[in-house]
Amino acid sequence: MKVSAGELNRSTLARQLLLGREAMDVGDAVRRVVALQAQHAASPYLALWNRLAGFDPADLDAAFTGRAVVKSTLMRLTLHAVHAEDYPAFREAVQPSVRAARLGTRFTDSGLTAADADVLVPQLLDFADRPRTTAECEDWLGHRLGAAPRPGAWWGLRQYAPLLHAPTAAPWSFGERPSYVAPPRRPRTVPADPEASEESLRTLVLRYLEGFGPASAADVAQFSLVQRARVRQALQVLELSGRLDRLEGPDGEELFDVQGAPRPAQDTPAPPRLMAMWDSVLLAYFDRSRIVPPQYRKLVARMNGDTLATLLVDGHVAGVWRPAGPGGGIEATAFHPLPEEVWEALAGEARALTALLADREPEVYRRYGHWWSKLPSAETRLLV
Prior knowledge:
The chain is of the alpha+beta class. The chain is 40% helix and 14% strand. The protein has a five-stranded antiparallel β-sheet. Strands 1-3-2 form a three-stranded antiparallel β-sheet. The protein has a three-stranded antiparallel β-sheet with strand order 4-6-5. The N and C termini lie far apart (45 Å).
């Protein structure tokens, strides 16, 4: 079966709750969309505001506090918010990548080895039976080593260990100074049985396809930062078990999808949205043209890794937005001309977003405003 580019776009929007806001519990929503990018503390909140009818930020506050939703280093070695029930398998699936990236030269230059880290991790998790600050963790590590830890030691250990970020401060549950706590159920960090890690990877692959499919092996590898060979093997096992369909993409590429998953027609209406920075739909694919037109990719994904807050129009990135400042409203910059009815719809979204931010952080993402001076000439409007 061949799938068009338009059908791929609408499949993503449907599974990511972006064809229309739905009424559901915050925890269920996070599980539905698989994972929310959480490098910036506000982004999971704005992501759910875009997806849920009547979203109340206090519900996500409560989910973080009660650990129904947890925040940790996961896919692509970045912070994600995921459902607590998904966390152990997700972490086990990406642990080989985390190990390779965080126990390399920068870590070993501190005088520690990967074997040392494997010994220290269970002890660190025991210590983090309640939220611990960075200073407390570094002091603990110094006591274990008999001297103050050298640079690179805590940097590698804090991400290699499956630690959760503990809520610390308003307005978005997590402040700039993180605290760490052990998860209630500890993922395996060094599985005695290699098959356990591969089983967890199959779980992650299946969940990814539920939330982002149809997709290629390269897409799954991009999302997870797991080696393509492992991803291909996981896909093969899942297909042989009868859980996946094999499809053909618009350019003949091999795609996979869970059986019975929604694949709406390409002409299904898609309402405009004001997407959060680093929203998952912008980063979940090797071929990002599904959502981000190639000519706009470098405008929204900056060289240092910042991915700007975007305008989503007809299911594709059409510009960027930021809070307008003390006067209120949203400043929207479109990369190409938009019909007046689209601007009107975006203005409605802007009013709702301004109201949400008023009680939290009216000038959210302000520190990233310097990117606007580097944008090409484009139409900018103040939406109030």
